[in-house]
Write a structure and sequence with these properties.
Radius of gyration: 25 Å
Distance between the termini: 57 Å
Structural class: mainly alpha
Shape: globular
Number of domains: 1
Number of helices: 10
Number of strands: 0
Helix content: over 70%
Length: about 270
């Protein structure tokens, strides 16, 4: 009987402690930050910092079209390695890195996701890719930055330079593939070859003399911030876990509880 009373008293003390902690704003804040630190870190490194860098580049280019002191030296250093073999490689990479080249790949992915009824993943793919195109076109028209004219390029371009469409396309494509493979071992393959692809496309634009390095960096930053920002809202990574019977989880075809609440409020 005494042991039972002792257990009851112990449980009551624990309950009071938990209740006291739950009522403490400091404790709640600490627990919340501990639970959400990954999302907060991703928001800081993946969204804020890239967009901050893009803003700095944009302001500098807006104030001075010539850009940064390191733009021209880097271009000239890359151009100093020019030879016929690299000309062919650069032209090939420029074609592979075209936004139009990414459309068939994204289209095939969209078709597969539709057949699998993965609506959330499909929504992320469409929002990230179409948004990237709109951002690039809008920024080019607003900035009106002309392309470098340091030498006669073998791949003439007529559109504006800032930010680089090739750089934005490569980052957007690799980011989408990474989000869809992050829960599997394929992510390392995508990360390695995707990084090489992004760097190779950037190199070819500099080698051909059609972009300043700041155009490339701006394209990377805004595309990175956009794709990660969209992922934090649409949350395509919540669809990686399968149900017991092997079917896709329910949240692929239905709204999450918090999304339903937002719909009812509106």
């Amino acid at each position: 009987m005494k042991s039972l009373i002792s257990l009851l008293n112990l449980d009551m003390e624990k309950l009071k402690t938990v209740k006291k902690e739950s009522q403490s704003p400091l404790s709640f804040l600490k627990n919340l930050l501990i639970a959400r630190w990954r999302s907060l870190l991703l928001l800081l490194i993946g969204v804020y910092l890239p967009l901050q860098v893009f803003e700095i580049l944009t302001v500098k280019v807006w104030e001075n079209e010539a850009g940064f002191p390191w733009d021209v030296p880097i271009l000239l250093a890359v151009h100093s390695t020019a030879n016929p073999q690299l000309d062919v490689l650069a032209l090939t990479l420029a074609t592979i890195g075209l936004p139009w080249t990414a459309i068939p790949i994204l289209g095939a992915m969209a078709l597969i996701l539709s057949l699998q009824r993965r609506w959330r993943s499909l929504a992320y793919l469409l929002t990230a890719s179409v948004g990237s195109i709109i951002i690039n076109g809008t920024a080019k028209q607003l900035m009106h930055r002309v392309r470098p004219q340091l030498w006669q390029s073998i791949a003439l371009e007529s559109s504006f330079a800032f930010p680089s469409a090739h750089a934005m396309t490569s980052i957007t494509l690799v980011a989408i593939l990474l989000f869809f493979t992050w829960a599997s071992s394929w992510r390392w393959l995508v990360l390695i070859f995707g990084s090489l692809y992004v760097i190779a496309v950037a190199w070819c634009r500099l080698y051909l003399g059609v972009h300043f390095p700041s155009d490339i960096l701006a394209g990377w930053m805004v595309a990175l911030g956009w794709t990660i920002g969209v992922s934090l809202i649409i949350k395509p990574y919540t669809t990686q876990v399968k149900s017991v019977n092997g079917d896709r989880p329910e949240d692929e075809t239905t709204l999450l509880p918090e999304e339903k609440k937002l719909m009812t409020k509106e």
